[in-house]
Amino acid sequence: MNLLPRVLILMILGSIPLFAAKSPNFVVIFCDDLGYGDLGCFGHPTIQTPNLDRMAAQGIKFTQFYAAAPVCTPSRAALLTGRLPVRSGMCSDKRRVLFPDSAGGLPQREITLAEGLKTKGYATAAIGKWHLGHKTQYLPTNNGFDTYFGIPYSNDMDRIASATKYREACKNAKIEYFNVPLLRDTKEIERPADQTTITRRYTEEAIRFIQTNKNNPFFVYLAHSMPHVPLFRDKPFVGVSKRGIYGDVIEEIDWSVGQILKTLQDEGLAENTLVWFTSDNGPWLIFETHGGSAGLLRDGKGSTWEGGMREPGIAWWPGRIKPHTNHSIASTMDIYTTCLTLAGAKVPEDRVVDGMDLTSVLLKGGKGPREAMFFYRGEQLYAVRKGPWKAHYITRAAYGRSQPEKHDPPVLYHLDHDPAEKHDLAKENPVVLAEIAKVVKEHNAKLVRGKNQLNTLIQK
Ligand code: MG
Q1: Distance from Cα 429 to the centre of ligand 1, integer Å
Q2: What pLDDT score does 196 carry?
Q3: pTM for the full model?
Q4: How far is the CA of 242 from the centre of ligand 1 (A)?
């Protein structure tokens, strides 16, 4: 063999391990209370989301993508641990989320996605809403993140009660009505946080982190405070949307997504970066036009009907992902397992991990590994999906004084035929009900409930 082909072969062989060793970067963009029907690419008729539409067209649009709980705290715990919140104790029948007077937070024994990626040398940033405990030991910087910048819980908390009533304060919002802190790592740097610029500042922070860490693998968890009420947006977005203030807020988030994708492209990082976009739970319908839309799905935030937990799900990874629309059942918990797997990090084996590896779906398309989805409200299992079928054992209105209604036999919907959950087919399908009952039995047999973290209050 003459010299040139040998050199070429050596060069190629030499470059393979280098290429293979380059760990992908991860960006998870997580909205708050965004509904299934709130994006242009998911069918909203007047909200304009050109950047998200492009992201979906270049990536995978998941039509059956689920948050792991219908409210903030448990949903976020599940995303970052890959586990149903009932296992970590990050859910409650009494207090559905953490509040500023809560003493608890994500238990130290949980292994967050950031902690998992740290074992492979990732630089990690949490930006935005945390809501997994605001006492120092529970903050992101003690949960695998190198840095944190954000409002540590919901943007409607710490309300100045004397200013005006809650609903009124949310609908005609002023910064000074909500005395929420803005933290840098563990230090308060602004209070009340100027929420009108919060989406822009979260975006700038994410871009800065990406640019600073472009030479080593990184993980950015960007959890927007919006579109949770009270709604705020920066000046350039005031009055831009035909959908009113809620549309303005979504269009600013869409701008933010565009800025982040552009940064990845400008820095030459796009083909080595997997970006996810989704939300923690469905739209907060009791806020009427200040809440979003679940599109054709039933109900919204707080409920175990589809509108409470099914979310727009988008994955983007130019050159690696096969662009398509995917109808597989998938969950935010799968982000955990998929990212750890792609990074070559260990998925914990000493505990139940509910997240599943979507690598093959991302790279090749086709049907994903997930067959079942469990719908918890607080600590109680309300419904279970297996394949296209969903059985509700308990139903309850999302908010208000309504009591839970138990169903025996359960009510049963075929979600592929009836995503709006209108037509109960329990009577005609006893075999399906028996199969789902088996799934529930197996689930309950293995379930170890984590110690409740949401009911403890700060001692005064
Ligand atoms: Mg939420």
Answers
A1: 35
A2: 98
A3: 0.95
A4: 24
